Amino acid sequence: MRLWQPLLLSLVLATSVTAQTASTPAGLNEEAIPAVMARAVDEVIRPGYRNMQQSAARLTTAMKDLCDNGTQQTLDRAKSAFDDTIRYWSIIEIVQTGPVMHDNLFEHILFFPDRKGVGLRQVQALLAKADPKDATVDAIGGKSVALQGLTALEYVLYGNGSDQLVGQKNGFRCQFGAAVAGNIQREAGEVVAAWEKPDGVQASWKRPGPRSEDFMDNKEAATALLGILVHGAETVRDQRLELFYKGRDTAPRPRMAIYWRSKNTWKSMTANIEGLRTLWQKAGMAELLPADKKPIADAIEANFKTLLDTVPKLNPDIDVATSDAEKAKLDAFLATSRALITRISDEYGGAIGLSAGFSFSDGD
């Protein structure tokens, strides 16, 4: 027994090492990670939140102008400013980590999805009550998240009764909308302030290690950055598209689509995808790939391009977009969005050395 036990143990260990060597991807290029993180922070995240905050400030001004002079021209300018804010928010909303997740700031800016229509009922009830005390930024900031953000303002501008905004001066509906816009501007400003503090989160992200409050080492930092890409792509698939269209064998639910009233559904999704591609490109995430794995980067770029080429072909009217005649376009969008998630999570994640025993997909 004593003679063959060591031999058997040696054979088991040798087999284990061989199997592990065959399945283990190339090691993580840790030297490149700080530069990638710095570019993500300085060229994508910080500018993204600044653009959002500045757009929200323009929206607040446009809403105040509408309240002071309710004409078709001021209403059109307010709607244009709203569309602009949707775009800038949708670009940066893919970053669902960091300061925007503190104190429910994300939900204060965007309360979605609202599967049971709770937010809609709250907005309608507040408008019906029309209490002037509810139409200030401070009052809005203390209310339910469903009353604070972009979906509430969309209903003000595009929902039932929005025709009241023309021909009135300082009516309650408009004053409430202006307060919501001001609250969005304030919340975005808090996120900007957090990211702009030199010794705050930006320093923590740029210098992973013992002194960082976010990432113990470079691997944790790379994992978080990859997680933004994967979960951002999953949001487009799960909460933006599949929430109202799961495929031709399932009945569509167009009224579940985000921003369907303002016809910003596809514009928002386009901006989501642009935000993901901007992070991928400007942070230089392809630089973490080994030389022999560069085709994975090309495949990811191709998926991004296909999605961005597909969206403009979709009808802005979601009822029409989900009709039988248009479903082939949605099916193509859905298939490519799924392929993108697999490419980023499994292929790219594995190639840079982050796939051992962990799947980014669906939060596992």
The number of distinct β-strands equals 0
**Major sheet:** none
* CATH superfamily label of the largest domain: M75 peptidase, HXXE motif
Fraction of residues in helices?
55-70%
Q: What fraction of the residues are assigned to beta strands by DSSP?
A: under 5%
The appropriate CATH architecture of the largest domain is Up-down Bundle
What is the C-level CATH assignment of the largest domain? Mainly Alpha
Q: Structural class, from secondary structure content?
A: mainly alpha
Distance between the termini: 44 Å
Radius of gyration: 24 Å
> How many separate domains?
2
Q: Could you name the ranges where pLDDT drops below 50 across 5 or more consecutive residues? A: 1-25
Number of helices: 14
What is the third-level CATH name, the topology of the largest domain? Answer: A middle domain of Talin 1
**SSE arrangement, N to C:** HHHHHHHHHHHHHH
> For the residues shown, what is the average pLDDT?
91
Characterization of the model:
The protein has 364 residues and is an all-alpha fold. The chain has 2 domains: 31-204, Up-down Bundle (A middle domain of Talin 1); 217-363, Four Helix Bundle (Hemerythrin (Met), subunit A), CATH 1.20.120. Helix content is 62%, strand content 0%. The protein has 14 helices and no strands. Helix 12 packs antiparallel against helix 14 (327-351). The longest helix is centred in the first third of the chain and has 36 residues, at 33-68. It is globular, with a radius of gyration of 24 Å. Mean pLDDT is 91; it is low at 1-25.
